[in-house]
Fold Kinase-like domain-containing protein.
Amino acid sequence: MTSGTSSFPRFIGNYELGPRLGSGVSGSTFRATHIHTGQVVALKLQHLSLYYPTNSYERAVYPLIQGGEGMPRLWASGVLNGYDYLAIDLLGASIDNMYRSMGKGVLDIRSALSIAVQMIARLEHMHSRGVLHRDIQLGNAVVGLAPNDKTLYVIDFGFSKKYINPKTNKHITSRTESDFIGNYWFSSVNVHCRSKTCSRRDDLEALALMLIHLLTPGGLPWTRNGIPRDDEAHERLKREKRDTLPEDLCRGLPETFQNFLHYCRGLKFTQQPDYQMWIEEFRELGEELGLEDVTPFLWPPPPLPAQSAELYSKRAQAPRASTSEIDNMLKDLARLNLNGGPAAPAQPAQPATPAQPAPAAPTRPVLAEKANNANIAPAAPTPAPAALSVRSGRHTKAARLLRLAQQTEAAVGNPQLAALVHAFRETLASTGRTLTKEGFAFLDGLHKQLADPDIFVFPLRTSQAQRQRLSRDQPRPREVTAEERRSRLCQLRTGVAHAQNNRALAKMVSDFGRMMDQSTAKRLTKDGLAFLEGVEERLRTLHA
Ligand SMILES: Nc1ncnc2c1ncn2[C@@H]1O[C@H](COP(=O)(O)OP(=O)(O)OP(=O)(O)O)[C@@H](O)[C@H]1O
């Protein structure tokens, strides 16, 4: 007996097959009902003759991840009538379906933030159980059915793998892989273009790329020609993925996305990502945009409040300013008459990141056909709408901060410094809380004034050139985790009210600046802003 619509049987054990929910390379998934209990499930079927029998892998993965939020429950599995079957929770539409149904070729920021927050949490759970997903993509993130319709679930563990060796209890080792396992669009540069072994960092990078794709009109550049049909097209795709700078990918988006991608790419093979820090970063970005808790996934997306849309375009970062643009800007500022004070030291413009090294020898993508779900119809590339207004917004922020830095160097007395700290907080609150290099220049000026205006103090921010030098000469300084940042900021914000003198305040400003320098997340949290408010208040009462 068959299910009517296909050559699949009508029954698998006690399950009666209903309509087909979807198909992939390795089989088909049906809505099915248990004939005794009436329970409705999703039944994933694979014929035993299949070339890629992923159900047998999934069967081994499900028990490891059970119990976490957004992890589908496995109700039954086995082999019957020549089919390998998995009976799992019936779930709703995938992000892919929803994104396509909008027909806009770009997702709203609230939905993207919600996906970020929930999917990072899903990966944290899987990784905490020693399992990598290895196929993060739009079709593998789905919403639950009511009452769980605000929760995102991860599906399709056919490529999943343990990264902790159960015998040695140690992290797997990195090597050059001969087969590519993953998907064309979102697999990380290291896995896809350099044939490196996948680890936790690569699941996160795939998520970062997926988010950037969703928010970019026309999608990621290498997705616009569709699935590569031959080796040459595949090599071209890999080259484009490898060579496109995060700055270019994230143009027109709030800086958090670029920072996240940089962070993922900066992780070491065995390093545990700071999941909570990034959940917090994306939640806070939502707050900054005036959105209420972005965690629940709401579909269809509620209309973005007008003020959020305006803030979004302000938060979106400008195209990278060229060296000459920055030089000119600094010269303009130097010409300004700022209480007759000296000009702030000009920060050299950041050189463009050098091109990545040549790719590893091309390998045949044995399982890359699984990327079918990632075959998003190419949309006409349209320029990011925010780009122009953003350019001036970003320069306004940079110019305002640099001006404040100059005024701080020229300030006389604590009341003036208090007013400048106030203006600094206000500027960050209205133009974006990310501490840019101009923000660090302000902290340098403040630190110097509080310590001793006549002595030289080292800049709080490590420049790109210093970073490169340091990484050649000595091991990278350890990242400050979200937890450490929270507890140190807590100490600073409570301690600031008791600072005995300007030198004590200088020490706190320096601690604060150095900690921000060592955090990948450069956006000031509420605690960070509260600390600055504390500095301002203390300066009003403290006589230098
Ligand atoms: N639990 C579920 N509830 C509802 N629909 C589901 C469920 N699991 C899978 N589907 C649907 O079936 C499709 C295929 O499922 P899945 O991705 O698990 O199979 P696959 O053969 O591994 O696919 P692919 O080759 O595309 O990775 C999904 O895109 C989705 O539309």
